[in-house]
Structure prediction request, 201 residues.
Amino acid sequence: MNFPTILFIAIGLAMDAFAVSIAASICLSTVSGRQIFRLSFHTGFFQFLMPVIGWYLGSSFSAYIADYDHWIAFILLGLIGAKMIRESFEDKHCESGAVCDNACASLKKNVKDPTRGFSLLFIAIATSIDALAIGVSLAMLKVDIWYPAAVIGIITMMMSIAGMKIGERLGSKFGSRMELSGGIILIAIGVKIVIEHVYGA
Prediction:
């Protein structure tokens, strides 16, 4: 798998963390350097870890499904992408009256600082579940996991930092649009995998 493909997958996966980072910064109103580091580090680390876990799980049974592994990869990517697209249209209003992601509304109810404690762990895990399925897909495609996982983690960390900075200025509608874009990217990657397999590219 070449670098542009890995990069597009990484960007697609990072959209969830990007959107949540925007929502979190809106809910915080003012964001410190420590808050940015905590959120971006944890989202990046879990986005690195989850594909590795998924890859090892997928490797254990990939030999039994080699004849249709590309279709499984397509279905997984398609489902993830469709989920992201659907969720991008499910916005709610924060107490401030600004439109924001569901994550923001939930965080507003439960915690004062979403970059601390259990809420931080929840955000990191929730935004990286999709990466677990990507790891399974890469195992079925017999792609070595460490390089893609590192790229996914780094891109996620960078986009989380950018999301928190942007969230202070642009509001949360942008976050939902990015999640929509991420879903479209993942579906497109899935289609590309099937086309390459069918035509022997």
